[in-house]
Amino acid sequence: MTHKRSDEAMEQLRDEVYEGMAGNGVTGASADEIWEKLQGFAAFGFPESHSVSFAYIVYAASWLKYHWPTEFFMGLLNAQPMGFYSPNSLMQDAMHHGVVMLAPDVNESWFDCTVEPFHAEMDDVASYLGMSWRRGRGALDDPVRLASAMRIGLRYVKNLGDAEITRVEAARIIGGPFVSPEDLAQRTGLNESALEALAASGAMAPLGVGRREGIWAAGALGRLGPDKLALVEGAEAPPLKPMNPVEEMQADLWSTGISAYHPVAFIRDRLTNIGCLTVSSTLNQRRNQEMIKVGGMITHRQRPSTAAGVRFINLEDETGLLNVVVLPPVWDANFEVARKAIGVVIEGRLEYRDGVTNLVAQHFTEWPLEAPVTKSRDFR
């Protein structure tokens, strides 16, 4: 029996059930009690069983996320596409829990994301990731040595399909690590678009090639292959200026959809100057009915059919995710921004109850981000 079985449908089973019970010696008050319980179960049994199984999954997942965060998030990323959150939101959450993200690497990455040994002081970690603005948050405060890091798999690199990734893996297994961009192109036969995406993701860095240089060379390298002579012209780039952090984030999001940088981090000073709190500081307020402003990017919009027109939004910045409740009059008054914008400043009233913090929105203002980002996931 499921939640879809109506009272009318249950009533059609009544005679058959009573007949069956009588055949097994169950009659009178006992039969009536059993039928009453069956009717009750048809009304709530499905959500009750769901709640039990979901509670078990949440407990197990929370235990894994706390004790084995690198392995936990690796499993989630390797199971994509699935669920509610985008790979980039998952990776941002992973870093909030102290997981170190390693970029794709033509000599180290496999098809799936993998766990690698990683030993460094936290200052070295911040320097490695180019994320000094993450200092002072969560697990990154702890000046301990990390035991592992997560390497992004080649499955996330744009323009690389199963066949291309298999060629990269096979070439490494048979011939050892690649030693130059020309060696990579000659042994794998990857086309221009695949090589361009690898370069943009930083996967060619171990070959001594920067992102711009690799993108420049992709056209020439795409003409090489195992069945062609190792002769190439135009692969050597002129002196090119290295990408700045914003450009690196743009290249990350274009090539893999995952970046160690968060777009909101680049406008944090401006958001602070107009009185915006970060998501993490908002969640730590633990005060009810206080008016605040929070800036970030909208990652999800939901309009459940049972919520009487109330919308639920997830607002993300470089420190975490915040649940935002939008009542119908506020949605209508701010429709153009609330429905279409990605970067926004939301002014509203804190709602803190039973350990849970929400922001009840009252006003939306669009705030253009420094770089293009993926669209929000909207559920109706």
Summarize the topology.
Blueprint lengths: L6 H6 L1 H10 L4 H40 L1 H10 L8 H10 L4 E2 L11 E4 L4 H8 L18 E4 L10 H14 L5 H8 L3 H9 L10 H11 L23 H11 L12 H6 L5 H5 L7 E12 L8 E7 L2 E7 L1 H6 L1 H6 L2 E11 L2 E11 L10 E3 L1
Parallel strand pairs: 1-3, 4-9, 6-8
Antiparallel strand pairs: 2-3, 4-5, 4-7, 5-6, 7-8
Helix pairs in contact: 3-4, 4-5, 9-10
What does this structure look like?
The protein is of the alpha/beta class and 380 residues long. The chain folds into three domains: 58 residues, no CATH class; 185 residues, no CATH class; 115 residues, OB fold (Dihydrolipoamide Acetyltransferase, E2P) (Beta Barrel), CATH 2.40.50.140. Helices cover 42% and strands 16% of the residues. It has 15 helices and nine strands. The strands form two sheets. The chain has a five-stranded mixed barrel with strand order 4-5-6-8-7. Strands 1-3-2 form a three-stranded mixed sheet, covered by helices on one side. Strand 4 and strand 5 form a beta hairpin. The longest helix is centred in the N-terminal third of the chain and has 40 residues. It is globular and about 90 Å long. The chain starts with 6 loop residues before the first helix and ends with a strand. About 5% of the residues have low confidence.
